[in-house]
Specification:
- The protein is 30% helix and 19% strand.
- The chain has nine helices and twelve strands.
- The strands form three sheets. Strands 1-8-5-10-3-2 form a six-stranded antiparallel sheet. A three-stranded antiparallel sheet has the order 4-11-12. A three-stranded antiparallel sheet has the order 7-6-9, with no helix packed on it.
- Helix 5 crosses helix 6.
- The radius of gyration is 18 Å and the shape is globular.
- The chain binds 2-oxoglutaric acid.
- The site of 2-oxoglutaric acid (AKG) has 13 residues, from strand 3, strand 5, strand 9 and strand 10.
């Protein structure tokens, strides 16, 4: 693509121009992953989850991080917050990119076993794009990461969500719709907003939420709540519908960490704002 680095990038401009399909989105993906020498060394629970990924679009890894690693991250986060070195977003419960300040969080986000799983899923190298720490439930509307972080070709992002404490229904667990990664990727051209902009991002966001709600209603599916134990991990497909459920126990915390990982060698951009996604550094 030619254009200034700050130019607009949107799905309608770039769709179809990239090459390749993520490994577990391909017909032969499971056979290919089974032939990968790294697969044989995985615990059975993870092997089964990976074999089911093409149907489900997610993978649960119970007890993936041990209690000491989780406790160290929570302690460091609390210390940095008390010292004013990390901050909650002014509009919602997000703390962005805490791993840049907190080595214990970076260790979770760049855990070699997690990176290996994501590389197995995509069949390419992956790099961490961002982390989000939540102390409280996000209560975020149902969405797919693809609207926020899109790739060309599509499908080259994985989300990793880590429970940093035991999380029950009242704390507003993350929810997901199994199999919803096969819903159409909802992009700007599906929302009835003018192209090219201007439009208000808030209007576009509202139109997106309405479109997702109608897709969910058409599917007739019920969300699954990811009630979790500290250290449990949920990996999700680029287009899996998920969000944060309502916090029904006032004052409940819901400590958790999300990482979003892009594959190497794909175009990465934010469909919501039609901007290129700037990777923080070269892949490590
Ligand atoms: O943790 C949550 O409640 C939702 C997080 C999420 O949807 C995301 O980061 O993509």
């Amino acid at each position: 693509m030619k254009g200034p680095w700050f130019g607009l990038v949107s799905h309608s401009q770039v769709a179809g121009r990239g090459r390749g399909v993520a490994r577990l989105d391909r017909e032969d993906g499971v056979a290919e992953i089974e032939a990968d020498p790294r697969f044989a060394n995985l615990p059975e629970q993870l092997q089964d989850g990976l074999r089911r990924w093409p149907e489900t679009g997610y993978l649960v890894a119970e007890g993936f991080f041990d209690a000491a690693a989780v406790a160290a991250a929570n302690e460091e986060i609390d210390r940095l917050a008390a010292a004013g070195r990390i901050h909650q977003h002014h509009l919602d419960p997000r703390y962005m990119n805490v791993h840049r300040e907190a080595p214990t969080v970076e260790k979770l986000a760049k855990d070699p076993r997690a990176i290996e799983l994501m590389e197995l899923i995509l069949g390419r190298g992956v790099g961490l794009f961002q982390t989000i720490y939540f102390k409280l439930g996000s209560q975020q509307e149902a969405h797919s990461d693809a609207f926020h972080m899109m790739t060309e070709p599509p499908g080259f992002l994985v989300g990793m969500w880590v429970a940093l404490e035991d999380i029950d229904e009242g704390a507003g667990p993350v929810f997901y719709l199994p199999g919803s990664h096969r819903f159409p990727y909802v992009m700007t051209e599906d929302l009835g907003v003018p192209e090219p902009p201007p439009y208000l991002i808030a209007d576009k966001g509202d139109a997106y939420v309405r479109r997702m709600q109608s897709l969910i209603a058409e599917s007739g599916q019920e969300p699954v709540m990811f009630t979790a134990k500290a250290g449990d991990v949920l990996f999700w497909h680029h287009n899996l519908t998920h969000g944060g459920s309502a916090v029904t126990r006032p004052g409940a915390t819901r400590r958790s960490l999300v990482g979003h990982y892009f594959a190497a060698d794909v175009l990465c951009y934010h469909e919501v704002t039609e901007r290129g996604a700037l990777m923080p550094a070269a892949f490590e």
